[in-house]
Design brief:
Blueprint (H helix, E strand, L loop, with lengths): L1 H49 L20 E2 L13 H19 L4 E2 L2 E2 L7 E7 L12 E9 L22 E9 L5
Length: 185
């Protein structure tokens, strides 16, 4: 009888350890995806600053209520540019394509699948003309947001980017930053 009670106690302990291990792996994946998103969002902000001549081409998200269009997995944004010279326009399109590929995870593959990014990564870049300084065009705030699919259901993110694309909105993870392009004229 004592041996049976001991076995049950050990079994409950082992099941607890197994459940803890599963939770730890999920938390590790969530943390890794957030770190990737933060690095990528900083990279996008840098690329936007580098392409200041064609910054208007980066304004891909026009509906900030639904967070669309966006680039990345199943992207709906047009990757075209006619804001400046042919060389600058080509550079802007190449930069947007590079960001799109990073979001799709094309930099790393495993068994023919793209695995170099967050699950279902998408980016929204919007512009708020109402924040322009002194009525000077192109001095307003840009909001850059990256969304991806989390592993569990949490609260719905406040920033709208790729809304209703991950099933339950509680599975959508989003990080965002707001930046302003300096007017160097």
């Amino acid at each position: 009888m004592e041996a049976l009670v001991t076995m049950i106690i050990i079994l409950v302990g082992l099941l607890g350890i197994a459940a803890l291990q599963v939770k730890a792996q999920t938390a590790e994946l969530e943390s890794y995806q957030r770190a990737q998103a933060l690095i990528l969002i900083s990279d996008i902000a840098d690329k936007l600053n580098i392409n200041r001549e064609t910054a208007t081409c980066f304004r891909i998200t026009t509906n900030t209520t639904t967070g669309s269009p966006y680039i990345g997995v199943s992207g709906t944004a047009s990757l075209s540019c006619t804001a400046s010279t042919a060389a600058y326009n080509t550079q802007a399109v190449n930069t947007l394509t590079e960001i799109d590929n990073l979001l799709k995870g094309t930099t790393a593959q495993l068994s023919g699948n793209n695995v170099g990014a967050m699950i279902g990564a998408r980016a929204c870049i919007s512009y708020d003309a109402s924040t322009e300084i002194g009525g000077n065009p192109d001095t307003g705030l840009y909001t850059i947001a990256i969304s991806w699919q989390g592993m569990s259901i949490l609260s719905t993110p406040a920033v709208n980017c790729a809304n209703n694309t991950y099933g339950d909105e509680g599975q959508r993870r989003t990080v965002s930053i707001t930046t302003r392009i300096a007017n160097l004229n």
